[in-house]
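Intended use. Records like the one below are meant for learning the mapping from a protein sequence to its folded structure. Do not use them to infer anything beyond what is encoded.
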Amino acid sequence: MPSEPCSRRRWIHVACLSVRPPLSLLVLMAVLASGATACASRPPPEALAATRDTLAGLDEFGALLLGAGLPVEAIPEGRSVSPVQAERLRRHFGILPYLPQHYAPRVVADELLRYAARHGQGVSRWDLSRMVQEYRNLFLLRQDGFLAAALTGEPARWVGSVQVRDDGAGAGEFEMGEFYTRADDESWRRADHPNLDTL
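Structure written out for the chain above:
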């Protein structure tokens, strides 16, 4: 009886040694193994190449549109924005849902697009990017009660719950749709809208 397990092990050992895979199977396994390594070393296909290229070529105006919630594929290309393009972008913003951080950049983008639409001819992207700089130290009241940077939508200070008023909406002394600037963390004052026609 004790010899039976030994003999089974011996037969299994002999069977394994006597089975030799054909050379073609070994070659096929070697090719498959090297092919998997070669595939793994190749870079992945560039599925987002167009998005990456668009983002790499963004100017200040394009970055503003992106910050306002416009999809990358909707950002206009070319060196100028025509009145027709400006109106189309304004309509685009009218139907796009947005997050609180999109609100302030969207207000600025709308002002620039209204300027381009009424200008009567194409406005260069260089001029629009220069106009964007006029808003860099300005803030707007968002619906959630935060004063937010006009260009980035980044919240700077919570001023209270926004309430509907006879002449609009606001929180405390702040009104929605008006620009503000700050001298320090506690001192805020209303700022004039940049006069785009003089820039």
